[in-house]
Design brief:
Number of strands: 0
CATH class: Mainly Alpha
Strand content: under 5%
Number of helices: 10
Helix content: 55-70%
Number of domains: 1
CATH architecture: Orthogonal Bundle
Structural class: mainly alpha
CATH topology: Lysozyme
Length: about 200
């Protein structure tokens, strides 16, 4: 029925009831626009957590669409990638949402060079992440372990968000090895920026 948002709900329910052979249903895939394939895993990991792939989703804070962008962020990102800002299209055009969300994530990732930090910034904003780096240490320098840093995120929503998006990325990599960003047995460690588990 071409409703990945319903697939997430059905798949989660099935897994909670012990029907593990329906895991793939809980992790649907969507078409990614040309030029954005390199971000396939993170697009799926974020969209699953943000909107459960519901292209019409609008959060209580006002974030919109598949990738749950705030209108101001979408406007700014549209300009950065040379597109006209189309506010109504945020909840009707999943390809636009993917292009804006993916390019926005890439911009954040380029700033932090860390998946957990970029994921936290996607959710809570770069200003908050910078404040937490000052308060809790910078896991990129070894001042604090990345797992401990994530656990010290003071916003429960953001802490949970980072954990779920990283989990989603690992699952998508395992289920779609041809598109995987991480390889080998230590996929979670790879996303955490660690050279080995632990």
């Amino acid at each position: 029925i071409n409703r990945p948002d319903l697939a997430v709900m059905v798949g989660r329910n099935a897994m909670q009831n012990g029907l593990t052979d329906h895991a793939a249903t809980a992790f649907p895939t969507v078409s990614v626009p040309a030029g954005y394939e390199d971000n396939w895993t993170i697009i799926h990991a974020i969209a699953r957590q943000e909107s459960q792939f519901d292209k019409t989703a609008v959060s209580s804070a006002g974030a919109r669409g598949l990738m749950q962008l705030m209108p101001g962020t979408a406007r700014e990102q549209s300009g950065k990638i040379g597109l006209a800002y189309q506010p109504a299209a945020l909840t009707t055009d999943p390809n636009l949402s993917i292009m804006l969300g993916s390019s926005y994530f890439q911009r954040i990732y380029a700033n932090y060079n860390s998946y957990p930090l970029a994921i936290a910034a996607y959710n809570a904003g770069g200003g908050n992440v910078n404040k937490w780096l000052r308060a809790n240490g910078d896991p990129r320098t070894g001042a604090v372990d990345m797992v401990d840093w994530i656990e010290m995120i003071p916003f429960q929503e953001t802490r949970n968000y980072v954990q779920r998006v990283v989990e989603n990325a690992v699952v998508y990599d395992l289920m779609n090895p041809a598109r995987a960003k991480s390889t080998g047995a230590a996929r979670l460690s790879w996303y955490l920026g660690k050279s080995r588990p632990g």
